[in-house]
Specification:
Strand order of the largest sheet of chain A: 1-2
Largest sheet of chain B: 6 strands, mixed
Number of helices of chain B: 10
Number of strands of chain B: 10
Radius of gyration of chain A: 19 Å
Structural class of chain B: alpha/beta
Strand order of the largest sheet of chain B: 6-7-8-3-9-10
Helix content of chain A: over 70%
Oligomer: heterodimer
CATH class of one domain in chain B: Alpha Beta
Radius of gyration of chain B: 17 Å
Shape of chain B: globular
CATH topology of one domain in chain B: Rossmann fold
CATH superfamily of one domain in chain B: P-loop containing nucleotide triphosphate hydrolases
Distance between the termini of chain A: 42 Å
Bound molecules: adenosine-5'-triphosphate, magnesium ion
Largest sheet of chain A: 2 strands, antiparallel
Strand content of chain B: 25-35%
Number of strands of chain A: 2
Helix content of chain B: 25-40%
Largest interface: A-B, 21 and 25 residues
Number of helices of chain A: 11
Order of helices and strands of chain A: HHHHEEHHHHHHH
Distance between the termini of chain B: 37 Å
Order of helices and strands of chain B: EEEHEEHEHHHHEHEHEEHH
CATH architecture of one domain in chain B: 3-Layer(aba) Sandwich
Shape of chain A: globular
């Protein structure tokens, strides 16, 4: 059963999957680190992004992989709206209040999805990427390969933005010391707003990619909330590369669980990893703080 | 280029910390505010820089009312702060901390010019440029905090206990730098517990105790004051 081919196949699966999971988590990490907000509704934004991708796919006959072209600007604006309407008011609140408020938002999003799209899982009618490349006996699904490339490109751009531009450096400064950033002349409210817009905007990218190979239902936010929080916890607060690495670790755990145990046990594996992590490395594997 | 503070009252929640504090700093002069732990010095600096809103009172900079304005707008008017405990961005490099200091300046050439000036003033910082600010020694960190405040070419500098926790030799160096900055015409408000130095440098000084100004005078006058000699200089 443990043939080298199978191992290699799942290794590749895991890395592909993990880089997409990292893309789903990076927005959460930005908002948590920079805005200092504990957002429990992140998984449900992913769920919403998958539905929007589904909606665009069905109504405009758009391939899901292309839906972020519309989804990104829409979610960017949604990020601004959510910041102004909700997040801005709880930024200085203790984490417990932030959790309470964002859990409220999560329930709202879930019921909204239930009302509009009902409980049955939805998947895309078609994707141009429904084929696989074959390397010997190894399969590389085109949808996930494209997803990984989009993810890596996004991480690269984000890294350059955060280290080379004044606004990006200011975001990292804000993550380090809010008062000092304000003293340097940073308009904290505007920068928080931009961070939320970017963080939620990127969710639209991840949602479109995820929908090419996974169906969505109103409860999808549960698993992605747990997954993305686990990735952020493992990465700790640091550079974007930590998120990419820890996303890949979860992708590998996911792929190997599905292959060697049971595809339905994914959640258990994520949960166990999360608990082990909190137990042994509460500051994350790659974080500086 | 003067700062005037009138009848300032500041509280944290229900606990009032500053009571009817009034003083002024003439353009180009250096004013020291001396006070023991918990007197309200940091509270005063935070209120001027916009991080705290006063209950009542007025803060005027160049005859503009800046009371209660957000910190980024106060920075844009030309007031820079060297906060208590340096207030650096530990996960940013030395260079990036300095870039943050120039956040309000759009003209790249002016930024380059200020960089050159900073490197003359603190050669050690150019050696450390790519290092994380969190890895600096106490003295280097204080130099970086001052350098960062200078990056915006401020008209006025607020110093909150710049000598705190530093070795005597470094303290000398920091006060040398403050003197140089004064000679360059920057208006300075210096909050200190290091009485001797702060009074020697000061054109005028105030003593803050329990949130109230209890004494004021020219620097050299206060050095001879019996209350000060007894309670602050241990003579
Ligand atoms: N965030 C806060 N919330 C409540 N009380 C505070 C807060 N910050 C300071 N205080 C209180 O306000 C008073 C003045 O504090 P402040 O920090 O302004 O004094 P300070 O003169 O700067 O002292 P130090 O020399 O120790 O820096 C103190 O009694 C302090 O306990
Ligand atoms: Mg203080």
């Amino acid at each position: 059963m443990l043939s080298p081919t199978l191992l290699l196949q799942n290794l590749i699966f895991g890395v592909l999957l993990g880089s997409i999971y990292a893309l789903a988590a990076i927005g959460l990490s930005l908002i948590f680190g920079v805005v200092n907000l504990t957002n429990f509704a992140h998984g449900d934004f992913i769920m919403l992004a998958m539905y929007i991708s589904y909606f665009l796919g069905v109504s405009l006959k758009l391939d899901p992989i292309l839906t972020p072209i519309i989804g990104f600007p829409v979610f960017f604006l949604l990020g601004i709206a959510v910041y102004l309407a909700i997040f801005h008011k709880i930024i200085r609140a203790p984490p417990l209040s932030q959790i309470a408020v964002t859990v409220g938002l999560l329930v709202l999003l879930r019921n909204f999805a239930l009302a509009v799209w009902h409980a049955e899982p939805k998947s895309i009618p078609r994707t141009l990427l429904g084929y696989s490349y074959r390397l010997g006996s190894i399969l590389i699904p085109a949808d996930r390969l494209t997803g990984m490339l989009i993810s890596i490109a996004t991480f690269l751009i984000l890294h350059l933005f955060l280290t080379k531009t004044k606004t990006g450096i200011a975001m990292r400064a804000l993550a380090d010391n809010l008062d000092s950033a304000a003293l340097m002349g940073v308009n904290v409210r505007n920068l928080n707003m931009l961070t939320c817009a970017l963080g939620i905007g990127i969710v639209a990218l991840a949602g479109g990619i995820l929908l090419t190979f996974q169906p969505v239902n109103p409860m999808t936010g549960l698993i992605y909330g747990l997954l993305t929080w686990s990735i952020v916890a493992m990465a700790g607060l640091g550079g974007v590369s930590g998120i990419l690495l820890s996303g890949i670790i979860f992708g590998l755990a996911d792929a190997f669980t599905a292959a060697f145990w049971d595809p339905r046990a994914r959640e258990i594996t994520i949960y166990i990893l999360f608990i082990l992590l909190l137990w042994f490395r509460p500051k994350g594997l790659f974080g500086r703080r | 280029m003067s700062l005037r503070v009138e009848e300032l009252n500041v509280a944290y929640g229900k606990v009032q910390v500053l009571w009817d504090v009034s003083f002024k700093v003439e353009g180009g002069s250096l004013v020291s505010i001396i006070g023991p732990n918990g007197a309200g010095k940091t509270t005063l600096i935070k209120t001027i820089s916009g991080l705290l809103r006063p209950l009542s009172g007025k803060i005027l900079f160049e005859d503009q009312d800046i009371t209660g304005r957000p910190p980024h707008t106060i920075k844009k008017l030309g007031i820079s702060t060297v906060p208590e405990g340096r207030g650096l961005f530990p996960n940013l490099t030395v260079k990036e901390n300095l870039i943050m200091g120039s956040y309000t300046i759009k003209d790249q050439q002016r930024i380059e010019k200020t960089f050159k000036f900073i490197h003359q003033l603190f050669p050690i910082l150019s050696e450390r440029e790519q290092q994380l600010a969190g890895s600096l020694s106490g003295g280097e960190a204080q130099m970086l905090s001052i350098a960062r405040a200078l990056m915006s070419e401020p008209k006025m500098l607020l110093f909150d206990e710049p000598s705190l926790g530093l070795a005597p030799m470094i303290v000398e160096k920091i006060f040398e730098v403050i003197k140089t900055l004064k000679q360059r015409g920057i208006t300075i408000l210096l909050v200190e517990q290091h009485v001797q130095h702060a009074l020697e440098l000061a054109d005028y000084a105030y003593i803050l105790e329990n949130g109230r100004i209890v004494l004021e005078g020219r620097g050299e006058e206060l050095l001879e004051n019996p209350h000060l000699k007894k309670h602050y200089l241990g003579l």
